[in-house]
Amino acid sequence: MRALMRFTPLRHALLGLTAAGALGAGQVQAGEVEVLHWWTSGGEAKAVGELRDLLEAEGHQWKDFAVAGGAGDSAMTVLKSRAMSGNPPAAAQINGPEIQEWGELGLLGNLDGVAEQGDWDALLPEVVADMMRHDGHYVAVPVNVHRVNWLWANPEVLADAGVEMPTTWDEMFAAGDALREAGYVPLAHGGQPWQDATLFESVVLSQGGSDFYRRAFVDLDEQALESDTMIEALTTFKRLRELMDEGMPGRDWNLATGMVIDGDAAMQIMGDWAKGEFTAADMQAGEDYRCAPVPGTEDAFTFNIDSFAMFKLGDPEAREAQFALARLILEPEFQKTFNQLKGSIPARPDLDMSGFDDCALRSMEDFQDARDADTLVPSMAHRMAMRSDVQGAFFDIITNYFNSSDMSADQAAERLAQAASLAL
Ligand code: BGC
């Protein structure tokens, strides 16, 4: 399923679908937009509810097409079958290079009119705008910027075990011992491939730095992938299992966050959608929970941008509604409320950040610093860094290595390099 572009019969089936007709003459009519997304946790559902309300306030109808499953793997599978049957939704959450894969299939609509009216070229950082265009035309709209390399903690639990927020892996393992002794799970985790990959990419960033991370996950440089640095990162990654509990296989990420919220676990390494869960539980950043960059990644920022790609539509009313959705997403009102609930920072950097909590302010500042210092890197685990077929192969290797005892770190590194060589 992941190798959409390479699977020729599917590609042909998709290319055979008819494109939409010409745009109607500008009159605003109420229409329905079907929106595919994977925002089903407590915090996520509250956040996406804002968008639905804004759209409905303009008289359009929101048809919810939520497919549960963190990081959207199930949502992407469902989207592919809907597209194959010639019936894609009007809007779908599609992130990173996959926007280009869908653009190449000729299925995405043109948002240039909305973009021009909203001055998206001026509003968006070039790197973000670039991701939203296919063949020079806007086909998608960015919702937010998530930071992935975060460590979350329950301060009461840390204090009870007499430990501080760890800033190195050595401190993390030492804190782990004290936390276990005090009866807590040191690190909450959900054993699903994307969560394993989320943890792994942060360890790679920590041990190799941002240049190494880019060589490995963006350039798919085989030497970097099978280097001693990668083997060390794989070793530390696997050692982190010592800090986890037996209930982790298959656990959803928000249930892992729930363990930190309830004080059963001390910490979680997860993107800042976890902050949406703390917020939904009425907890205050800095008081009831703490955030810090993953040990050793203070100077870097792993970004994950959520966006909605818009499919070609024939019906002019549906098209009006789709354009309204695209416009609303970048308007200040939505950007502020949504991102406060979601845990992310706005996609447009010009917004006044009053009302955002300390973790969001730190994220905004670190994003800008990382951009200036060239330490801003795309998330491998969240579809930002590489083609979807390569990402799928990496997920398999990472998760098999993490969860079984029959693959050594050297072998895992070698397999990553092999997977990269097949991709080039
Ligand atoms: C998305 C987030 C989402 C998270 C968990 C990430 O890939 O970018 O918006 O909250 O997955 O589902």
- Radius of gyration over C-alpha positions, nearest whole angstrom: 21 Å
How far do the termini sit from each other? 19 Å
Main sheet makeup: 5 strands, mixed
Widest beta sheet: strand line-up: 2-1-3-13-6
Shape: globular
Which ligands does the model contain, each kind named once?
beta-D-glucopyranose
DSSP E strands, number: 15
Number of helices: 19
- Regions with little confidence, pLDDT below 50 for 5+ residues: 1-13, 15-27
**Structural domains: how many:** 2
Main structural class: alpha/beta
CATH topology of the largest domain: D-Maltodextrin-Binding Protein, domain 2
Task: Specify the CATH architecture of the largest domain.
Answer: 3-Layer(aba) Sandwich
**Beta-sheet strand percentage?**
5-15%
Task: Report the average pLDDT across residues.
Answer: 93
List the helices and strands and how they pair.
Elements: H1 8-15, E1 32-37, H2 42-57, E2 61-66, H3 73-84, E3 91-93, H4 98-104, H5 112-118, H6 120-123, H7 126-132, E4 133-134, E5 137-138, E6 140-142, E7 144-147, E8 150-153, H8 155-160, H9 169-181, E9 185-188, H10 193-217, H11 222-225, H12 228-239, H13 253-261, E10 265-269, H14 273-280, E11 290-293, E12 301-304, E13 307-310, H15 316-329, H16 332-342, E14 345-346, H17 358-373, E15 376-378, H18 388-403, H19 409-423
Parallel strand pairs: 1-2, 1-3, 9-10, 12-15
Antiparallel strand pairs: 3-13, 4-5, 6-13, 7-12, 7-14, 8-10, 8-11
Beta-D-glucopyranose (BGC) binds at residues 38, 44, 70-72, 146, 253, 273, 304, 306, 382.
